[in-house]
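# nightly structure sweep
# worker-07 picked up a monomer target from the shared queue
# config: single-sequence mode, recycle default, output format = structure tokens
# input follows
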Amino acid sequence: MSEAIRFIMGAEDPSHYDIFTHAAGPEGKLPLTSDMLMNLPSGDLFGMSQNVGMGWKPERLLGKQVLILSTQGGLRSEDGTPIALGYHTGHWEVGILVKEAALEVSALGGVPFAAYVSDPCDGRSQGTTGMFDSLPYRNDAAMVYRRLIRSLPTRSGVIGVGTCDKGLPAMMIALAAMHDLPAIVVPGGVTLPPTVGEDAAKIQTIGARYSHGQITLEEAADLGCRVCATPGGGCQFLGTAASAQVVAEALGMSLPHSALAPSGQQIWRDIASQSARAIQHMNENGITMRHILTDAAVENAMAVHAAFGGSTNLLLHIPAVAHAAACRIPDVADWTRVNKAVPRLVSVLPNGPEYHPTIRVFMAGGVPEVMLHLRKLGLLNLNVKTVTGDTLDHVLDWWEDSERRHIVRKRLQEVDGVDPDEVIMSPKRASARGLTSTVTFPIGNLAPEGSVIKSTAIDSTVVGEDGVYRHLGQAKVFTSEKEAVKAIKLSQVQAGDIVVLTGRGPSGTGMEETYQLTSALKHLPFGKHVTLLTDARFSGVSTGACIGHISPEGLVGGPIGKLQNGDWIEVCIDINKLEGSINFVGQGEERISPEAGAAILAARPSHPGLAADPGLPDDTRLWAALQAASGGTWRGSIYDVDRIVETLQAGMEALAKSKQDTGG
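# output follows
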């Protein structure tokens, strides 16, 4: 025997070969009737056999079946120690929520089922080729979730447990498409910050800070070890993961005060059992997703997103949820209108002005507390129905006088010495503290189809007294994030530069996140004096003068793909009026008008380094083509089947005609 086989097969143990070839099977009888045997499909009948084969008692087979989907990842032992790691803390503990929900479904006489579609971690894949699968994964996962739901045709409702950047949006999209089913989202909560240390956003800059001598090797190792202070939950900042939880609740898809709960703690566990009871109530009262998700509910979600100062990635996810729900898809004009009308009220990482972690937002009252303020301003549609079965107006009445509200807000003051009204502010206080609305959509000869910036997160010290950020600078053009990060670490990017990262949109990378860049600029002393322009997107925790989603993307002929080193670019962002422009205005010593700049760019060839990343997977190339045919990123990178079929048919007809014309 070779050493390899000896090592692989291990020591012989004859007892392992005592194999049985048959078994008695479960005791009892299926609760069948003549009518069931005559009329039920064979799948329903065989399903009963499968259920008792897995150990379910035959006498309990006829309860309402509830499917619990989750993003669970990794394998934990009963005491929580890892057997196999997950990709991130966000999905590490959600299995506990699945268990709590399942036990409650069972206690109510139902039959729980569970299925899992785990998710990647955008933090883990930053700066790697793993990022090329990040946004496309969302569409794939939503499709798999929908297939899993339909593959259990006897289910009476669905509970979806999810936490992080793509898993939770995928879950929301999937459940939104279940128009005639009761469904509810259980947000997976947040992790706690270390008592002494840094949050999960700042820690991702240790490489850049070390390269500039801001921290030592020992400090980086120590801080990096302690940053995820508890083992479960999404990151401690209001990035994409936390923003998605907030939006799920604002849509009415989650229970009140469920977003941003501390993972692993009892109040977090309770949300799962409460959600199981909500599903039963919805079932008994005929309430389905069609009743919850309406155009008015989408407007509420946009308003709450603005009040929180949420991630710009939700500009991709909210339209996708709306499309799945057969609601009107919001456009740029809708986003601008909402953000001009809705004040930002929440002081939280990464926006400030005080950098409170998300757990404090939860303890200050979370989504319903923010909604109380928005209700007073007349900015909410109050007659929308929520998964409680009540209207939003009734839910907010309950919250305002609830024991839960008063206790958790008081607890924040006692434990952290933080006034909850300094975390979630009244409009008057927010205005006095200088909080501005969330996002601006700059246009210009570099972004003829639009772009986006979280304008509220621009460093206030570089904004003029009139509320306008102005930057006239020369371009340093990069066609890969790796090149740009290296330039920053080697001090080749300096104050006053305008960094241009092109070719990193959907066609080049699957529209990667570029948090390596934005975080480095935030935490380096000169970074606030640098503007970043890209056709990629940003992590939800990104801040500063960072303009993304620039359209058209460079690889489909967008002007951003024609810029050259040394080109003069003018950036103007009015953070109060939420208006902005980005224009190419000169080359060398010459200054030109935006109109003349547009003409020069139109005549220029593309940047010589512009190309799809050589590591781009075919799966992502397919995603990019399908979402482009569906309207692109401004419609949420969705799969609009009607548009895709129409495009394919037109293409096949054109190819057939071309062959006829050429005799091929």
